[in-house]
Fold this protein.
Amino acid sequence: KAVELCAMARTEEWLKKSGYSVEDTHDARPYDFLAKKDGCQLFVEVKGTIGDFCDSIVMTKNEVELHRERKGSTALFLVSQIQLQRNEDPPKAIGGFLEEHIGWDIDSWHNVPIAFQVSRRK
């Protein structure tokens, strides 16, 4: 959770410095932020990791659908190299290298299903 919150804070800071107004939507929508600037909306997904590089992410079905339906008005922000301080209670995350993909085309990345919902037949 600390890594996720750190990545979101870094992304929000970047968006605001770049002139966007930012609404946190991660609890209610399939995107983390709705950013607005010059009459345009940007649907922002944020992923964070303590790893050195982020070249693979996990997304929900709703997130994937959003990025396909709103292609051209979505963004992916990756924050790698986040330092997790586990000696604190609760753990604290700081730093990170921010990589922004504005107008991200999800279909330019490999999309591989890794889970299925399996239900009893009725």
